[in-house]
Amino acid sequence: MLALADVAFAYGERRVVGGVSLGAERGEIVCVIGPNGAGKTTLLRLAAGLLAPAAGSVRVRDEDPFRAPRRALAKTLAYLPQEYILEFPFTVAEVVLMGRYAHRPPLALETETDRRLAADAMRRCDVLALEDRRFDALSGGERRRALLAQAFCQAADLILLDEPTASLDPAHALAIFHILEDETRRRRACAVAVTHDLNLAARFADRVVLLDGGRATAVGPPGEVLSSDAASTAFGVALRVGALPSGTPFVIPEERT
Amino acid sequence: MTRRRLALVVAACGGAFVAAAALALLLGAGADGRLAILDLRRALGETGQEAQIFFLSRLPRAVAAAIAGAGLAAAGATYQALLRNPLAEPYTLGVSSGAALGAVLAIRLGLETVLGTAAVPLLAFAGSLAAIGLIWRLAAIGTARPPATLLLAGLTLAFLCSAATMLVLYTASFHESYRIIRWLMGGLDWVPTADLVRSGAVVAVGLGALVYIARDLNALAAGADAAASVGVPVNRVVGIGFVAASLTVGAVIAFSGPIGFVGIIVPHILRALWGPDHRALLPACILGGAAFVLVADTVARTLLAPQQIPVGVVTALLGGPFFLSLLRARKLR
Question: How far is A144 from chain B (nearest CA, A)?
């Protein structure tokens, strides 16, 4: 579904991603973790075709997303940016329905199907009650959930999310990962999420990619990557991974001795 | 956006347009110079004074006002969407100032002896396109054009063009300076039919292109990345939007002179009434902008009748305070 091979990128002289390879398949949740400034967002933007790599190749279904026509690509790939500042007073429903634009020709209005899919996505992300409110008047967490609804109603097979649970309360954060699980298991979509929520990554990710200084220093099952030496080097603290009696894993950072 | 809502918006703004057109066509100074309502049956039926006023004065002027208003309002809404800045409009982008410099040069250099009566509108048109082309190149950082940079480049160019215009004006003869000042005030009192046809055709093409990208402008409200990820070909849409809006503004200024603030007042009022969705906002701006300038021009003709004030003065006197109140409201929010 998504294949990055030896991808590098630099802003001017500053190299932010240096030779990262990464694959993600249908039915999979891949979490990208790493300290601030490790190049996570840049990597995700490269995968979304919003940046052209300086070296290496990015393929979404065997196609270069940077060169692909955006409208066709949007039916395959949905991307949730980290920052989303809306300049005009659109309502929540209007913002969510933007996720359906790619499915209709430029001059067409939304159909009943579009509205049903949008309502469905809003219900799943718990923003249906807010649908007529102004998007820019919502709280940070509510905005995040509305944008997730937009991404989900885009009905894309590859979903790229940049910190989907940032500023969400625990219940909503958990609910979002349950939706991701549902999308990947039931609909056979593929989700790649950049996240700082290590507990949710440990619980839901099929694979975790650790990014440090623009390089992938560990890739594998969450338990292995999180308790690796590479993780403690990257974060500067040791990560202690345990499990509750129910089997749900948890991650606690601790000073290195 | 539902079909029903779109129809409602178009019907409401269409109603306003028809009412404004009726007002502009029927109200004004009569044959004796006093304010009167024109008798439409006599105007349409005879070849007398009423018919002359109607066909030779009021009708062409109303058509000019409608084209100017439709073009300026829709272009203003488009600039605001493209730059993600509700205060953007032809004035703040230097497009109007570029056009003014072109027109002033045409008058000062006596180009009418070479190019005929089309000289002033032609150079105004060229000036507006040169301005937007220059801003487009100056504001580029790599392949991106951050809105703030574009706006600053536009404002700087506007000041530069104003200074150049002032310099030309200073060196002009008495007769030339009168014409230049008159042009700079913006007016619709005598627009040759040939100019109207030429500009009308360009405006029609420009407005068509803007309506075509209306939906993409919605997505751009959240920035280039967000728009691209819902399937908007960002670079192409921004290109089409800028070229179409600037051609439209250039074509309008070419025959009307700079008429300020239409591009900011009309979109703001309509956005407050009907919401920000450009699929309704742009048609609403076309009809509502036409209605606004028709009314403003009627005020310009009748306020001191039989004396006339330039319509640009009326829109600026209305628009200046409006613009400032918007600035203040944004600061307080």
Answer: 13
